[in-house]
Amino acid sequence: MxxxxxxxxxxxxxxxxGALGAIGALYVVGMVAFGASPETTDVGYQPEQPLPFSHxxxxxxxxxxxxxxxxxxxxxxxxxxxxxxxxxxxxxGADANGVVNTVSIHSTSSKLxxxxxxxxxxxxxxxxxxxxxxxxVYFNHSAHVRRGVSCVSCHGRVDKMDVVTQVKPLSMGWxxxxxxxxxxxxxxxxxxxxxxxxxxxxxxxxxxxxxxxxNLNPSSNCSTCHR
Length: 227
What we know:
Number of strands: 0
Distance between the termini: 53 Å
Structural class: mainly alpha
Strand content: under 5%
Largest sheet: none
Order of helices and strands: HHHHHHHHHH
Radius of gyration: 25 Å
């Protein structure tokens, strides 16, 4: 019986197939490594920011509503990172004539020099995201906050943090657990940004009531987050 002989042209594609296989393996390893990186899953992740900003002072002591700086959370998928002009509403520096607004707060502070430089140059501040999901994960802020999921559920008590730290794993299992049993994380929508809110009575009963009133049935289908 004659042995089967591959045609000679096969020799030209073997290296190509090997290269494609190696690239594919590296791609998979890279995706898994990124998905499991500190930026996405590590509780305690605390990146260094271009200047010190205390949520404990602004959201805690001064009681600024989360939506003042993150003003798209109710209407868009992404929570806006505040532009320089938002900071300057309170911390405006000198005008073109060198006159400092007398009602400004710490307008000449050295700590706010990067903000004044951003204003002068027009270059955006390079804030670093603390909660940064992989690109292959779809998450819509408005779909959550408008249905009674508080900022606290995902971000913790940022009003007690001088430096914002990741307090939840943001893993697929963690998200699925909430979608399957959302009651512990639900509150009346008008209190989603009231970080120190406490339920009157059993929190689970309040969550169940909110779920019924809003007719919530979170999907756990893969396509919900992987589109």
